[in-house]
């Protein structure tokens, strides 16, 4: 039961972050729902495709898509003031990133995948929804620019696999891995931590 709740929590968190982006971009109600729901279930659909699960679970379990749509509608009607939208977007995106990275890796590992494959599946699950969201609103995907985005997903996925390898269950792996990923992501945003970027001379052009 706790494991299922964690999956739905990740979907809801990502859906809210996606819907907030849609509100900030001043999309209509359909646009907000499409961006929010796609962000919410997109990562899980990519995970299932990588693991050979057809059709993806979000097409079979009505709860997944329902949570994503309802979360998006709530944001559309009750979103905070414009000056606070960016703050909430980052927080919910971090929660979705953490829960999806750990959960995706746990699902892959328990299905018999290798350690490396499980970690990569977890990372793709975590960043997939965000990439879909950014593409839909014509933005450079955050995984390429934001503070330790992919690194946080790697930490969450790697920790989840380590917990499972040491005998823990999927719930514990998701909780510990997700918590560490969320903590690193929010800390990197607060402190402005980035991976190294190329140094450009003053006269160079892109």
Automatic annotation (TrEMBL):
<feature type="transmembrane region" description="Helical">
    <location>
        <begin position="116"/>
        <end position="136"/>
    </location>
</feature>
<keyword id="KW-0812">Transmembrane</keyword>
<comment type="similarity">
    <text>Belongs to the UPF0126 family.</text>
</comment>
<keyword id="KW-0472">Membrane</keyword>
<feature type="transmembrane region" description="Helical">
    <location>
        <begin position="172"/>
        <end position="190"/>
    </location>
</feature>
<feature type="domain" description="Glycine transporter">
    <location>
        <begin position="5"/>
        <end position="79"/>
    </location>
</feature>
<keyword id="KW-1003">Cell membrane</keyword>
<feature type="transmembrane region" description="Helical">
    <location>
        <begin position="6"/>
        <end position="23"/>
    </location>
</feature>
<feature type="transmembrane region" description="Helical">
    <location>
        <begin position="90"/>
        <end position="110"/>
    </location>
</feature>
<feature type="transmembrane region" description="Helical">
    <location>
        <begin position="30"/>
        <end position="47"/>
    </location>
</feature>
<dbReference type="Pfam" id="PF03458">
    <property type="entry name" value="Gly_transporter"/>
</dbReference>
<protein>
    <submittedName>
        <fullName>Trimeric intracellular cation channel family protein</fullName>
    </submittedName>
</protein>
<feature type="transmembrane region" description="Helical">
    <location>
        <begin position="59"/>
        <end position="78"/>
    </location>
</feature>
<feature type="domain" description="Glycine transporter">
    <location>
        <begin position="91"/>
        <end position="163"/>
    </location>
</feature>
<keyword id="KW-1133">Transmembrane helix</keyword>
<feature type="transmembrane region" description="Helical">
    <location>
        <begin position="148"/>
        <end position="166"/>
    </location>
</feature>
<dbReference type="InterPro" id="IPR005115">
    <property type="entry name" value="Gly_transporter"/>
</dbReference>
């Amino acid at each position: 039961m706790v494991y299922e709740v964690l999956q739905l929590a990740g979907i809801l968190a990502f859906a809210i972050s996606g819907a907030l982006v849609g509100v900030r971009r001043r999309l209509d109600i359909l646009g907000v729902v499409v961006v929010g729901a796609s962000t919410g279930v997109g990562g899980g659909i990519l995970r299932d495709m990588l693991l050979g699960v057809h059709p993806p679970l979000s097409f079979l379990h009505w709860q997944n898509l329902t949570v994503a749509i309802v979360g998006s509608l709530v944001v559309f009607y009750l979103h905070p003031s414009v000056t606070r939208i960016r703050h909430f977007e980052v927080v919910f995106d971090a929660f979705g990133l953490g829960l999806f990275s750990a959960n995706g890796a746990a699902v892959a590992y328990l299905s018999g995948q290798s350690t490396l494959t499980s970690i990569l599946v977890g990372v793709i699950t975590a960043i997939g929804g965000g990439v879909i969201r950014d593409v839909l609103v014509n933005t450079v995907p955050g995984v390429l620019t934001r503070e330790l985005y992919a690194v946080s997903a790697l930490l969450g996925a790697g920790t989840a696999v380590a917990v499972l390898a040491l005998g823990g269950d999927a719930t514990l792996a998701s909780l510990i891995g997700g918590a560490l990923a969320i903590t690193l992501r929010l800390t990197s945003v607060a402190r402005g931590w980035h991976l190294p970027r190329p140094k450009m001379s003053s006269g160079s052009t892109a």
